[in-house]
Amino acid sequence: MAQAWPKAKPKLTQDAFDEAVASNIEDFDMSRDEAIRSAVEEFNVQGYDLSGVVTNMAGNDLQSHPIAVACQGLRDACGGQGSLPEALEALSSSLQASTPESSGTAGGSVPSLSQEASIIAHKGGAMQALLEACRQLQNKTDELLKALKLLQVLLGWLETRDAFTEAKARTGVELLHDLLREGASIPEAKTAVATVAEAAARQVEEAKCRLVDSGTVATLLEQMQEPNAPLDFLGAACGVVRSVTTADDERPPASKAFMHARLLAKNHAAIRVLLGVLRRVPAAEEPGTACRVLGTVRQVAANEEICREFTDDGGVMACLHVLNFNDAHVLEVESGPTGLISDLLGFNKRYAPFRECAAQRDVCRACLGALRQLAHSDTVKKLLAEAGALDQAVHCVELHSGSDDVVEAALGLLGNMMLRQPEICAKAAVAGVADVVVEAMQRHAGRAHVQRQACLVTRIMVARNPELRPLFLERGAEALLRAAKAAHPASCRDVGSAALRDLGLDNYND
């Protein structure tokens, strides 16, 4: 049965909110602050959506706000009345003045606008004006980059992202495609375009569909294959591919994320492009970009066929080398009957930049996540087991035993590898997986996602291998499983009971 999302709340208008505040002041003799608080509480109780209302400026003339004035100035400049560069600078300054100090821009991150600033910019037509400015500035790189940066800032708010897709004349998506093909002639501009596309697609299904249907994502995949494509662009382009293959918009009844993954893999060689990028990125020096590539691989590898294609081209071994696996062991496996890569020396040299990355938590987690997705394929399960991935997953947990997200990802990989594979379960026992499970449950007792994966791994290991039951029982697994069920009933009651049952214990439902 399909999931039914909750009915959307009715949107409250600014006029209705202002009227309620004025009524509170006049009829109940409230101060302005009291009147605003009372109106907010009342409309929340009535079930209204206040996301489009500037609550702390109720009754004021929004058109006189500096952001609204700057938006009008930009619209005028786009119509030939004024200087575009000056209008962009004015809008940038007004937005920056309304940016919470805590958001900052350290490390090149995009500042987060306050809700007030986002609403005023949206009502002032900033999105449409910036799109028009980008069209007029295609051959002026510095000004174009500033306009694209402002677009990215505005796209932090959901309603602005909707406006980006619904813009009049040609949509924002079509503009981005034009810039990629013709207007963005330098790498910095292409990177900025890809970054805007990723921001626009977040939690907006319509934008995802238009990015794919317009050919924008296909163009990005083509440009990712260019030998001189900079790493910043590769990371941003991966972000777009990942966005369109992620179902994160709860408003429509269904998502096309899975269809997009199949389409991009089949018609545009997306998984092979990603493997080529993974081979290029020096993960030790560029961990952020490596994480983005691996996260995108995880999303695109949506079915057995895609997983097999990635594996046959050497993708699984590429991921293992990101985790600094033993080269000699991998080469021995690759020279065997699978024959995935013929030039062993070339293979070893190709992945040399990836060594010593398992100690980097984010890279380790991203790589485990990609392998976890690939391990849904029975063929990949066996290849991973032969290549020593069981030992590598255990090693990752040892390196990051205090990081619940890495532990959860490692347990998820182990569970997928062993599912319906009794021979791999036996190897896992030798690799010390039972110890890993018990220690994870003890260390992360308060983390429901870790506890759930630990319950699943326990059940998978003993369901078809009853001889492994003592490994868990002697280590106190029963008490840990019952504690997980009690502490996290929503996540662990079902899997915890199943694990207790397969351990041969009575009263497993208690």
TrEMBL record:
The keyword Repeat applies. InterPro entries: ARM-like, ARM-type_fold. Keywords: Repeat. The keyword Cell cycle does not apply. SUPFAM superfamilies: ARM repeat (SSF48371). This is Armadillo repeat-containing protein 6.
